[in-house]
């Protein structure tokens, strides 16, 4: 039940920015916006215009800057005054999108809103109808049922809520896993049921948070049960543990044969710049963009890498560094976990060929040095020096 085309909607400038210790200035937001345009994401949510004047000005500025045909969304609560303010900001985009959010889970309705389910339906209908009346018939309206992922207890009600939003004029139904509480397939199955219930009445979108570290997996699987849009963020930015990571989601979909419009070569430089702008470092083992993800130290792995390093598919590599705009390459390093093949590979790359009978001698010497010095890595330069001395003695 996979859609014909998957849309990547970025929420970094709204959900990502609002979670920063130091939210971006207008100039910084413009730079992030331009990075997203270069990445060629399908749509961009630029902010929460009604929350304060700074957000309003930024959203309006970015809407005016938007390329032709690029959906530009602004978030609003289900409040007519806020909806009108949001429209004042985003209407300047060539393709504006109104995004309205309101809670739908039983827990939120009882403990946060403290109103009846009937009143929730009325609120949704009134706000979406008002939005449609001011944006006209052609502009997209996206309705998000906040805490949808927590709506297991009142799932039948959420169907009614989404249907009321569609009847009032919503084109896109966004299903947020506002707080990740359960295993991915619980949420995926909920999305599947809503998708089947809605049919072709509206597009289905998902927006997942990463509280348990499964946001990307959850979002990717939702594509295969009917979700047509995935909301993501650069570097996985967002409230608490963050949102679905743009890079991981797009690479995962690509690896599974999906065609996306993303400029994959812009991924790594974008990630590095966002890390600089936020002061949030990229972990060395972070998928796609981590410094160490193309390093190999285990002997078994090193043998496979050496045999497939020039092939499009590597024995221990999902994608090539250059595919995501990296200038580094697969590397083999020598530790006390490495094998003979590591020494051969490193030396041969430097044009040094040691007789097979002497490789084991080098191997034992290098391992001995590593073990005696707290299992440290033996550098390529050290191996070259050891090999050069060995060759000279022959």
TrEMBL record:
Coiled coil ranges: none
Its EC number(s): 2.3.3.13
GO biological process: L-leucine biosynthetic process
Pathway involvement of the protein, from the record: Amino-acid biosynthesis; L-leucine biosynthesis; L-leucine from 3-methyl-2-oxobutanoate: step 1/4
SUPFAM superfamilies from the UniProt entry: Aldolase (SSF51569)
Keywords, in A-Z order: Amino-acid biosynthesis, Branched-chain amino acid biosynthesis, Manganese, Transferase
Enzyme class: transferase
InterPro entries for the chain: 2-IPM_HCS-like, AIPM/Hcit_synth_CS, Aldolase_TIM, IPMS_Lepto, LeuA-like_post-cat, PYR_CT
Matches recorded under Pfam families: HMGL-like, IPMS_D2
PANTHER family: 2-ISOPROPYLMALATE SYNTHASE 1, CHLOROPLASTIC-RELATED, HOMOCITRATE SYNTHASE-RELATED
Family note: Belongs to the alpha-IPM synthase/homocitrate synthase family.
Protein's name in the database: 2-isopropylmalate synthase
Lineage: Bacteria, Pseudomonadati, Spirochaetota, Spirochaetia, Leptospirales
């Amino acid at each position: 039940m996979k859609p014909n085309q998957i849309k990547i909607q970025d929420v970094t400038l709204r959900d990502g920015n609002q979670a920063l210790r130091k939210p971006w200035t207008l100039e910084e937001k413009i730079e992030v916006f331009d990075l997203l345009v270069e990445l060629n994401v399908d749509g961009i949510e630029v902010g929460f215009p009604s929350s304060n004047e700074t957000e309003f000005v930024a959203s309006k500025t970015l809407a005016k800057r938007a390329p032709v045909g690029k959906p530009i969304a602004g978030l609003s609560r289900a409040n007519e005054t806020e909806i009108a303010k949001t429209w004042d900001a985003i209407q300047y985009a060539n393709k504006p999108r109104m995004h309205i959010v309101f809670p739908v889970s039983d827990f939120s309705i009882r403990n946060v809103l403290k109103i009846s389910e009937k009143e929730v339906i009325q609120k949704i209908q009134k706000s979406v109808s008002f939005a449609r009346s001011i944006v006209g018939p052609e502009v997209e309206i996206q309705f998000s049922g906040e805490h949808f992922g927590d709506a297991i207890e009142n799932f039948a009600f959420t169907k009614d809520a989404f249907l009321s939003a569609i009847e009032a004029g919503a084109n896109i139904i966004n299903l947020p896993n506002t707080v990740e509480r359960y295993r991915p397939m619980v949420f995926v199955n909920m999305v599947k049921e809503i998708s089947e219930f809605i049919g072709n009445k509206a597009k289905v979108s998902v927006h997942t948070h990463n509280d348990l570290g499964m946001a990307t997996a959850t979002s990717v699987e939702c594509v295969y049960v009917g979700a047509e849009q995935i909301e993501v963020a650069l570097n996985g930015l967002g409230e608490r543990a963050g949102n679905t990571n743009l890079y991981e989601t797009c690479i995962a979909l690509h690896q599974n044969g999906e065609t996306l419009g993303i400029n994959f070569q812009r991924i790594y430089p974008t990630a590095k710049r966002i890390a600089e702008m936020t002061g949030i470092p990229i972990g060395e083992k972070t998928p796609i963009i981590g410094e160490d993800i193309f390093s190999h130290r285990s002997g078994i792995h090193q043998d496979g890498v050496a045999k497939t390093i020039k092939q499009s598919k590597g024995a221990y590599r999902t994608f090539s560094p250059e595919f995501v705009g990296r200038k580094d390459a697969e590397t083999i390093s020598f530790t006390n976990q490495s094998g003979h093949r590591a020494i051969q590979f490193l030396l041969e790359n430097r044009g040094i060929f040691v007789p097979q009978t002497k490789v084991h001698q080098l191997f034992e010497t290098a391992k001995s040095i590593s073990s005696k010095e707290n299992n440290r890595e033996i550098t390529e330069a050290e191996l070259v020096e050891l090999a050069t001395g060995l060759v000279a003695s022959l």
